[in-house]
Structure formats: structure tokens, C-alpha cells
Amino acid sequence: MATVGLLHPGAMGAAIGKLLRPAGHDVAWVRAGRSVETTRRAQDADLRPVAGLRVLAKECPVVLSVCPPENAVEVARELANEGFKGTYVDANAISPSAAAWIESIVTTSGGTFVDAGIVGPPPVTAGSTRLFLSGSAAGSIAKLFQGTALEPVVVGERVGAASAAKLAYAGWTKATSALLLALRSYARAWDVEAALLDEWRRSQPELPERSAQTAQRVHQKAWRWVAEMRFIGESMAEAGLPPGFHDAAADIFAELAHLKGDPHDQDPEHVFDLVRTPKART
Known about the structure:
The chain is α/β, with parallel strands linked by helices. It is about 55% helix and about 15% strand.
């Protein structure tokens, strides 16, 4: 049995913590400063609250970070400042260069770093979700998840490889969602949306419904995908590829990020109108 610290139990993190419990692992989290909703998720997942980050650093030989990607570096730094010397698993949607940065933070404080990337929804049923892992200790972390609904996939010892695999996947699934929204918005701007939808029904029959469903769901994650798209653009540039696809997707998601909690957030017509930049709408 291992004691695993979880930073922080959002929808994905709580689901991962929950599946580790039946496998016999103790999963701890820091309650201080977290929301009522986060507390409820942690309780439902049977996670053990601890008094603070210093206690987590002391008690947990393994810590898993699942947080908004823009917070990944700071979350790692805060734990390192508390003297953590165990194995730190960063499972956030960050670039390989950001993973290397976090590795330097963790190893400088005496810890071991494992790069990770999650593909799929919060793991509930087997076969739905993979955990890409890379780094010298990737194999030991993979063993924690053997037999659970989260399938570990070791992609090598090179730090950044797991993040690269995750971003290559998300660079298609999420950026194409942004592209569909942009094209519907463009057609509306020229008052040819009906013609576009008619042609899609003839030659790309899945796109009318897919674009509408994307508009209905995007409010749930747009705020989180902005930084992820920026990281993908950065990673593409580092590999000698154009970053513009994903920088544009980040701009589109940024336009929609404020929809979270909006009463009109599931209205596709409202979403298509909002995709265009403020300058274009004036």
C-alpha cells in the first residue's frame, strides 16, 4: 500500500484518487483553502484530509498534481518549499519545456520527478482513460494504477515525452473543436450559415451536430483549455512547427471562458456569436 498526496481534487483528480482507494492506497489531500465543492468531491472519493501542505509533504512519498495547467509550476514550487523529497507526478496539460522546469524545481529540493499526461474523461470505467508516464521512476508509478480504471502507459524515460504525447492528442481533439466554432461563426458573419450547414449535411454529415454539441459543451472547459492551447502552441514552436493553430484556439476559448455559469451557456446560437473577437463584433 502506498500513501499518495493529491493536489488538488477537482473532477479529474478526485476520480483518480477514488480509484486508488479500492486498490489499497491511502490518498491524502489538503483541505485548507479549498472550496465547498472540492471538499464534497474529496469526501465522496474517501480521501483523507491533512492539516496542510507541510504535513502532506512529510507523509506522502508520492504526490500527484492534477490542477489547471497555468497553476502547475506554482503548485510544484509550493510543495518543494515545504521540503518534499518524494516522487512528484505532474499530470497536467503542460508543455515538455514546462515539465522540465518543474523537474528542476522538484529535483533541486531532493525529490524525483515523473512527467504525466491524462487522455480521456475522469476514469470511472476501464478502457476510458489513459495515463501517459515518462521519467526514470515512471514504471513505479505505473504499478500504482495497474488493475484500475486508469490505464498507465509508459512512453519512455525522457522527461517531457508524456506531456508531448498528451498535447499531440489534445492538439487535435480540442483545437478542432475551436475550429468548428470559428467556421460556424465565420459563416454567420457572412450570412451563409444555412448554406454551410446544407453542404455539411451533404458531404460532412457529422459536422452540423458535432458543431452544435461543441457549442453546448464548451462552457464547461473553455476556461481551462486556454492555457493548454498556449502550451501546445509553445510546444509546436519548439519542435519547429507553426504555433498559430493552437494560439488561435486559445484566443477562441478565451472569448468563451466567461460562459462558465452563464444562464445562456448552452445556447449554440449565443456561443457562435461570441466566438468572434470583441473588435470584430463592434
